[in-house]
Amino acid sequence: MVNEAGQALFHVHNVSKIYCMGDVQVNALRGVDFDLRAGEFVVILGASGSGKSTLLNILGGLDVPTSGEVFYRDHNLTAAGDQALTTFRREHVGFVFQFYNLIPSLTALENVTLVTEIADKPMNPAEALSLVGLEERMQHFPAQLSGGEQQRVAIARAVAKRPEVLLCDEPTGALDYTTGRLVLEVLERVNRELGTITAVITHNAAIAGMADRVIRLSSGRIVEECRNPRRIPPADLSW
Q1: What whole-number distance in Å separates Cα of residue 148 and Cα of residue 175?
Q2: 3-state DSSP helix/strand/coil percent for the chain, to nearest 5?
Q3: How many other C-beta atoms lie within 10 A of the C-beta of residue 236?
Q4: Residue 39, domain member (yes or no)
């Protein structure tokens, strides 16, 4: 990565999001303010319904706020149209979701290759799979892989286009403790070796220990933001 260490790349200013469900208004986010800096690992923590998935979708250009502004470098995402947001997602963002969304008829290598074919300066697909420890599983189909292996393919797919930002929505939510910890080790390695801004949203407070910074959401508001004095290796986490 060529980012200056610690440079603020994302600026989120007074962001609110209101969903209208019939006659009912749901305030998913209320006046959220924070920055994301180059190379940092951030955990966005909150219970179900706290607004964390909405926030992640706005950061990734999958949704837009009702009010407030989101800037990525010099891109004003709140003023961007659909085509500009598509370009932003393609060029700058990798996504990892709770469910792996792999194409079942393609091998692990082919699933990753699909993304590299539309990226400007992609990683070699085999290199991406090696980064997540799947050198020996490249020719396996999703049905031949464990849940943790499928999630690691999904991470390889996300990082193969060399995104500056990796957004992870409950990446261990469908996994047992041992497998989830392996996936967190992969995310930590990607952040450390590639310098990718990594934001993980989770309801699991134990994961917060591995972050540079923790942002806690409740009822759509940031209620706490703190910096860890040191990052705890995923292998030392327990829940």
Answers
A1: 7
A2: 35, 30, 40
A3: 9
A4: yes
Residue 184 lies in a domain: yes
C-alpha triplet 46, 49, 201: angle, nearest 5°: 40
Structure tokens at 110: 């082919």
Residue 213 in any domain: the answer is yes
- How far is CA 42 from each of CA 90, 95, 107, 152, 218, rounded to the nearest angstrom? 22, 15, 31, 19, 17
> Hey, what are 92's tokens?
């700058």
Residue 3, in any domain of the structure: no
What is the distance between the terminal CA atoms of the chain, rounded to a whole angstrom?
33
Query: What is the span of the domain harbouring residue 187?
Result: 8-236
What percentage of the chain has pLDDT greater than the value 90? 73
For 55-86, the pLDDT digits (tens) are: 999 999 999 999 999 999 988 999 999 999 99
What is the tally of structural domains in the chain? 1
Assign residue 20 the CATH number of its domain.
3.40.50.300
Give the model's pLDDT for residue 178: 86
Taking the C-alpha atoms of residue 213 and residue 44, their distance in angstroms, rounded to an integer, is 9
Q: How far is CA 99 from CA 132, 190, 238, in A?
A: 17, 19, 22
Other C-beta atoms closer than 10 Å to the C-beta of 220 total 23
Q: How far apart are CA 100 and CA 52, in angstroms?
A: 19
Tell me if residue 4 falls in helix, strand or coil: coil
Measured in whole angstroms, how far is the alpha carbon of residue 64 from the centre of its chain? 17
Q: What is the pLDDT of residue 94?
A: 93
